[in-house]
Amino acid sequence: MLIIRKRGVLCLPLLLLIFLISVTNSYATISQDYNSALNQFRALAKNSKQARYRSNWKRLEDKFLAIYQANPDGAHAPKVLYYMGRVNEELAKRSYLSSDYQAAVDYYNRCARRFTKHSWTDDSLYRLSRIQYYNLNKAADARRTLNIILRKYKNGDKYKSAIALHRKIVADINSSKAKSNSGSHAVSKAVAEAAKSVSTVRKKSHRAASKVALKDIRFTSSNDYTRVVLDLSGDARYQYKFLNADPSRNLPFRLYIDLEGTAPVKSVKDELKIYDGILRMIRVGKPVPTTSRVVLDFESVQKYTVFALENPYRVVVDVSAPKDGKMSHPPVDLSKKFAAPKPNKKPSRTIPPSRKVPDLIEQLGLTVKTVMIDAGHGGKDPGASKNRIREKDYVLKVAKMLGKKLKAKGFNVLYTRSRDVFIPLEERTAKANVQKVDLFVSLHINANRKRSVNGIETYYLNLARSKSARRVAARENAITEKRISDLQFILTDLMLNSKMQESKALAELVQKSMVKTVRARGWKSKSNGVRSAPFYVLMGAKMPSILVELGYCSNATEAKRLRNSSYLNLLADGIANALSTYRRNLKNYAAM
């Protein structure tokens, strides 16, 4: 390949050509993977013997999901979401589990929300309505779904089918009402008493639900990123809505979250003025007696995400804004009922000749200057404790060792904590985003009920692919393994803008370097490799982020190593060398 240089700098057109070739190759790969997954779906649906095994359907779902994550806005994305719904629907026909039907509903819904103008959207909505009516016994929901087709997709191929199903549902509902009315005169006193009893129970449960307290509102804010956390005393249903700014009425961009069955404690202020970034104000009110409403006022909004974390239960709001504070289009939100329009492409601006390549390198994220080191747990949360090791103490020790080594290599170093204090998991990544760090490294020590389990392992944010990964994620998130499957679904949205491939590459470098460094000094440490899992502490990170498990304190031999300062120093050396290699690789790529 001919590389054109001017004073040692790669010309911008060649960089763009390389980028275009990469995009073309990526599309071809995605298309090939999609066709392969589609063929597998058809074959599995026809093979009655193989279709009986749940694992076959779940592996196929993972394959479709990987294609979706590779390009969530590409031409194949809506079709992939549709087939993820089909996979779960076919699985439900064999498992008879409502949870599998619900998973299909969620994927069909997502296809319809994100791709409102795609030719497959009405197909997704129609299949969704059939599941709601025939399998989940939700006639009202099915009618609402069909109404969307009848209003918005009159030219779609499912329009006539939607009319027929709508008429059937209405007829069935009317027939049911007629039967109910004809037999109403025969209702006995006992039945009436039973109805009264049920009503009383409902009122009691309603009052019980309203006992959930909105305990606190926390926030971390900068000029282009904000994370707000609503701390609750228990689980609560919530819904939210975004409102555009109205300059004529002097109204800012607003996002409100309604928390059903909750009431704020006295310490939560009705109004909190902030003005330290894009977050302008937080207001708390009660639109109805049993619901608390939290309103967030913003200077500008480009994208927002709302999700819940558990143990303790809290609702997290992530908001990003353009760096210049200006907004030329409605915010993009993957969780709204209908997705906002895609933003128009901004016109290219002229870059001064002397700044062309450095600016492009910055835009592509090809620089590493600042690293944030996160010592896991801390304060009231000791982490894993076994064989004279408390996780929170030893990871802090390694964090400080690593920080000194990175500073010696020319990195700027920040810490989520530099002493024994408790910091909620969601605040750690928020700090990294606000500080605009380039890499995020979270340090931990593992534990397992089986004392024989040992080894070093490194994780990046993605779906858990193994039972072991699910177990580790559950422990670090302080939730049960059963809840990990619910968390995986949330992740399919949250990971769209996370740097998964960069994180995976960083994790591979760190894992290899740590193991190589300690083995070179005679330590017989086992490598458990690089794994993916849904960790709260990595969620929402805007930079390559990894979680390192330095070893198992539950294993007596490995615990002895971890108590040895020389061994910990070698682990820190391995991580530092890997981060330095990662930075050098980026520089070499940028200067090709």
Report on this structure.
By secondary structure, the chain is of the alpha/beta class. Helix content is 47%, strand content 20%. A six-stranded mixed β-sheet has the order 16-13-17-20-18-19, with helices on both faces. It has a five-stranded mixed β-sheet with strand order 7-3-4-12-11.
Give a nutshell description of this structure.
The chain is about 45% helix and about 20% strand.
Counted by DSSP, the helix tally is 16
Number of strands: 20
What integer is the average pLDDT? 80
Low-pLDDT residue intervals, each spanning 5 or more residues? 6-10, 183-209, 325-364
Biggest sheet overview: 6 strands, mixed
Give the strand order of the largest sheet, numbering strands 1, 2, ... along the chain.
16-13-17-20-18-19
Structural class: alpha/beta
Strand content: 15-25%
The dominant shape is globular
Radius of gyration: 27 Å
**Relative helix content:** 40-55%
**Cα end-to-end separation:** 11 Å
Layout of SSEs?
Layout: E1 5-6, E2 9-10, H1 12-46, H2 54-70, H3 77-95, H4 98-114, H5 121-135, H6 139-152, H7 159-182, H8 189-209, E3 212-221, E4 225-232, E5 238-243, E6 253-260, E7 262-264, E8 271-273, E9 279-288, E10 291-298, E11 303-309, E12 314-320, H9 356-363, E13 370-375, E14 385-386, E15 389-390, H10 391-408, E16 412-415, H11 425-435, E17 439-446, E18 456-461, H12 467-477, H13 481-494, H14 500-520, E19 527-533, E20 545-552, H15 556-562, H16 565-590
Parallel strand pairs: 3-7, 13-16, 13-17, 17-20, 18-19
Antiparallel strand pairs: 1-2, 3-4, 4-12, 5-6, 6-10, 8-9, 9-10, 11-12, 14-15, 18-20
Helix pairs in contact: 1-2, 1-3, 2-3, 3-4, 3-5, 4-5, 5-6, 5-7, 6-7, 10-16, 14-16
